[in-house]
Amino acid sequence: MVSLSKKLEPKENSIPKYLVISQSLSSIAPLGSVSAYLTFALASSLASTGLASIVGVFVYLLWVIIGYRYSKVIASTGGTYEFARQASGETIGSIAGWLYWISYAIYLPSVTTYLVGIVLPTVINFQSIYLSIIEVTIPIILTLLMISGIKPPLFYSLISSTIEVILIIILGFKVLIIKGFSLEPFFITVPQYDFWSGALAVAFTLAGGGASFFLGYEAKGKGKTIGSSYLIAFVIASIAVIFASYYEIAAAGYSNLGVTNLLNITEFPGFYISEKFMGFTFAFIIFIFTVNSLLGSAISAYVALSRLTYTLVSKNMLKSILTVFIFFLIFNVLGSITGQLQLIYYFTTEISLITLFASHSIVSAVYPFFIRKISKISFIDILLAISSSGIMMYGIYSNLIPIQLTSIISIGVILFVAAIVIIYRYISKSKY
Predict the structure, then answer these.
(1) Which UniProt keywords apply (predicted)?
(2) So what's the pLDDT on residue 243?
(3) Which of 72, 250, 393, 431 could make an S-S bridge to 179, C-beta 3.0–4.6 Å?
């Protein structure tokens, strides 16, 4: 056990750049995002998702610039926690870090439950008992992969992500050859609120790229490698998501009604469109690599979360991995026992989204303090911080309204984390 724990400890300058890019790109999960989270965007902005996806990319670009500037300077296992801590102290850093921890920890059951509850039954007629078994088995398999070391999971993600992007391009060109081009997706044909909800859903689709922030200590080239890898993965994923949103709208007939009908038929439009335009064989390949994509995304989140746990809780990587595993397993066992996989998917996705935006809004808001410590602060820096934190807070608002059970729980989680951190910091200071 001691030798295994030592083997898993983060090793400085040990991960090459291409694997860091893999961590960023696979955490976004191009094919999985097109299948899962892009469906959220389509449900809101319908045929306007073409424009909403472009807006969503530029919305998230504000955070990308901030994350890039942080990551070039701060190379650690703590990622966003360390960003906020160095900018504005331990209390703010801990609040941002724990909110990020919760977002990623809940993302794990979200993405795997989507796989088991929606993707698999769309293609294979599993009995519910087998779905329940798979739901519980996934956290165990991923944990065993994590215990094998950092490089095997990243190699797996690299191969999967590369093939995913190629499949998206092939399918998209086939759809457009048949359906032709239209400017309809670049006009707003839905209410403004629905349009912006779609844009923010696309922004969330791209949010996983920050998983590479937590490899700062281990990356060869440290901050320089993390920053450039993050940008490369963001550009690749942005192009893939915009292109996918366009061809999915094209496949639906370039109309709001067509998109609505598509989503009424399936919650896995990638497979449906593939089968319709390319035949079952290609659709089955899409299915296989969507499964790989979702698993790759979960692995990247697990890698990031284990390192954040290592920083926040225990300087022992094995214990950190097992801590994440227990949290992960509890949610998936709950889904397995109740059989309410789709409900748990929507529930965990909403909470993960809100806590992610909350953490990002904090890290964005304290960005000027970070810049002031490393160079002369400019008006652009302040404007960037205000814009990014404002958009992230709007993301929180748009997911809280209308108030539902997930809204109340999310607010409770944010307030609970803030209260616990503040109380802990107060007690710690009182001892000295």
Answers:
(1) Membrane, Transmembrane, Transmembrane helix
(2) 94
(3) 250
